[in-house]
Amino acid sequence: MHCPKPVYLTKNATSYVSVTSNISCEASPDAIAVCCLLKSPLLESVGLLEFTDALGFSIYVGRRESLLLDLQDRLHEGLKTHVLTLNSEMVVMARRIPEFNAAARSADIVVPDGIGVAFALRILRGKPATRISGIDLAEDLLNFCQNESISVFLLGARSHVVERACNNLKKMYPNLNIVGYHHGFFLGQEEMVIQKIIQSGAKFLLVGMGAPFQEFFISRTKDRLPTVFMMGVGGAFDVWSGLKRRAAGWVQKVGLEWLFRALQDYTRWRRLRFIPSFLWLILLTKLKGSSL
Fold it and tell me: What is the DSSP letter of 157?
């Protein structure tokens, strides 16, 4: 007997797992999901998603490879998905701006993009969470879109930046089908942008407008758009356009990419004022022994 694809199993209110792969499993129909998750010797070879509640979100704490498998299956099956790449600043922002909190919490999958979030999960939940960089995840998925002929739309940044990002991505992924792009400064013209995305027929949407604006746009429009996958990518277009550089691999590994970005752009120093609030939130949560 084969487990259906995908199989979703909810364990309780604080964590759940999702398997998206065909695996052999001798069991009654009522026990298929449990057998697949708990008894299969092939467990490590399938897409296993595990989440934990912390900092006001249900955050993914599994392997990047498993997440990719699940997202690829969702794209194949046309399951509409909004991925939120959560960092420390967004956690604090969600506490201060109710509208952003609602938009962020409406995401289908939340991943720990910032090193601060991964650190907080280790402290609060004892989970060995690994940071999953939003730009790395986006590039993995763009490569998948190239191989599977999935159409892509880019939204965000300034006109010349998103245009250069589009051209460079086509060089990185020669067979990538980018069916449209638009800058992120369209105050009063959102309906025109929405129609442009609808007319493009894109199934994969990356929004690089920074928080909270990209999350607001996705939450407002995802039910209207034909896109199957939506993700905010912050300043990724600046990197793909060549206007900014990413930190060296060792800097990323030690968790200091945020500092590298701040050194490249002095305006980011003002944004670092959230750090004391985030550290206080971790301490308060730990002392109270709750997920807050």
Answer: S
Rounded Cα distance between 140 and 203, Å, is: 16
Report domain extents, the chain. Answer: 1-46, 66-292
Give Cα 17 to chain centroid, integer Å: 17
Contact 49, 10 (CB under 8 A): no
Q: Phi and psi dihedrals of 244, rounded to 5?
A: -135, 155
Instruction: Tell which residue, 85, 83, 137, 70, has the closest CA to residue 115.
Output: 85
Conformation bin of residue 255: beta by default, left when phi > 0, alpha when psi is -120 to 50: left
Contact 155, 165 (CB under 8 A): no
Q: Model confidence over 67-122: pLDDT tens digits?
A: 999 999 999 999 999 999 999 999 999 999 999 999 999 999 999 998 999 999 99
Helices assigned H by DSSP within 134-267: 134-148, 159-172, 190-200, 213-221, 236-240, 249-253, 257-264
Residues 90, 265: Cα–Cα separation, whole Å: 19
Residue 93 structure tokens: 């922002």
What pTM does this model have? 0.81
**246-256 confidence digits (pLDDT tens):** 767 776 776 76
